[in-house]
Amino acid sequence: MSEQYQKMWTELGLDLKAHDALLGVLSEAYQKIFMAQDNRPQAMSYFDFVMSEVHGLRIKELLDEKAAGRKIIGSYCVFVPEEIALAANATLIGLCTGADFATEEVEKYLPRNTCALIKSAFGFKLGRVCPYLETTDMVVGENTCDGKKKAYESFKEIINNLYVMDLPQVKSANGKALLKAEYVRFKEAVEQLTGVKVTVESLKAAIKLVNAKRAAMLRLYQLRAADPAPISGLDALLANQVFFYDNPERFTASVNKICDELEQRIKENTGAFPAKLPRILVSGCPQAMPNWKLPAIIETSGAVIVGEESCVGERGVRNLVDGSGDSVDEMLDAIVERYFQVDCAIFTPNCDRLQHIEQMAKAYHADGVIHYGLQFCTPYLMESMPVQKALEQKNIPCLRIETDYSMEDMGQLKTRVEAFIEQLK
Amino acid sequence: MSSFAGVDIGSRSIELVLVDAAGQILQQMQADTGFDPMAEAKRMLAEVEYQQIMATGYGRNLFEISFDATTVTEIKAHACGARACFPTAETVLDIGGQDSKAIALFPNGKVKKFEMNDRCAAGTGKFLEIMAKALGFSLSEFSEQALAATSDINISSMCTVFAESEVTSLIGRGQSRQAIARGLHQSVVRRVKTMLNRVSTEGDIVFTGGVANNACMVQFLAETLQRQILVPPQPQFIGAYGAALLAAGL
To answer: Is B62 in the A-facing interface, judged by CB distances under 8 Å?
Structure first.
């Protein structure tokens, strides 16, 4: 696809040579990891197409939207409410954080012992290889973990459109009030950016659109409870990663189409894998595109992933917004209500998350849980020990993994994962 | 007579064990892994006959492709081999060349939980090997001298490279080699203790892997953990032995 988009990428200021190299690696990994799978649902072909055009057609669409007067907002977190962006005539997209890039440049701004996800956000900017980032009119940085909130202070030096959103750390009345105040401030900032006021109608429509997108993902998750698993964990994760980039209506329709096919599969008792395979729930840090390392290891070691307890997973899409309010303020309250339930590890205490892990393990008939922690991600690594302990008390085996985006620990990871799967048999 | 082979392709050495249908050891061999483990494995296998073969160790997947064999992780292989030697053991500690593993078993021998060292060589055979060399000891001298030491020196670095420079500076300050050797063994024991305590806190421990030949490690572990340490004969073969038993369906 390179040729036809060269001009667009050049105008966006990308480093074409580095960008070509990135696309080369991405396409090779995609072939090796996704296309090599057996028994994929036919409807996954939509996602194959999306991936083949991930830096092409989709960017062109966003640029067309911009030309028509819309604004593009980038985000790094599921706490940034898409409903508000959409209601004020902006498109929200998730930004690239799933691969190491320009590490030497990054380490001029960040300590070496920073989590791979944060480094990646810097790497894509410093390496000039993320067309999404270059398309944005506003980038929202959110105060989640210490790593991210301090990193945004330095990020300001390298991007000129950063907007910082504060977030609560405790699920108290004060915490909720803070979230509400921040969402109101965000609404005003987006209105100022786009020159379009959020109205009752536009917010209602936006809530409906995002609810439909989340409902489609939730439908997909529930179908994974079946044995044989109708879809691989890799393909389900991919859909969830594309969730952050794609046009919402088209995405929803495509996921529902997959679900229709999966329902048919379940009726026919067929699946992406044979029945009775060990079933794994992955829980922990988000696996942003194109971070497919752990799921690829798990699913080539004789097990199937039946759920992701993650922000790129059920944690990110659980709960819909009540859009029945009659005023903007009422609906904003409903939005706050929904987002305030996200059980991110930045909250203390964060008891809901453990409950959700147990519920998901039960609902999807998981034989074991693999806790995925990014190295130097204090909140999730800290939670991994009590999570493991609590699960073991309920006789749910749990393996704690701590890794990053590099490939140097592949051998050790494979041994751990294989041994864990042997344990479940 | 039917025979079943287990091959353990480790980072430092390859072990091959042959058992009969009852699990009795017929033959065992060991060679350095070298730079071409598949060629080395091929050479070893050319000398024996077997009906089934099971591969384990870090090279198992490469072996699986080259020899059309089935594979098992080191964790299950060591658990199986250790239980064959000590049928009631519920904790296994394996320290090999580049890995160390603490494994807890259910009373029926199935793996209950395990912990592995992270990606560096801290707390492994390689660490001890490099430190012995830094002190100018052979591996057996290293262990003997550490046991003979009368004073303690605390070695704080667990990173192999940092520990080596720590050793160099201790030598430079005129500290006794014996005491340094003792401190190095203690540092590995501390590392292993954390890992073991995460999987089990009581009962006997079966110690396998090449490092179990180190008498000083065995003694210090027993003293520190206050648990009995059981070492099978030729503990470096336990991974391959376990794989052979699994190949035989035992």
So the answer is: no
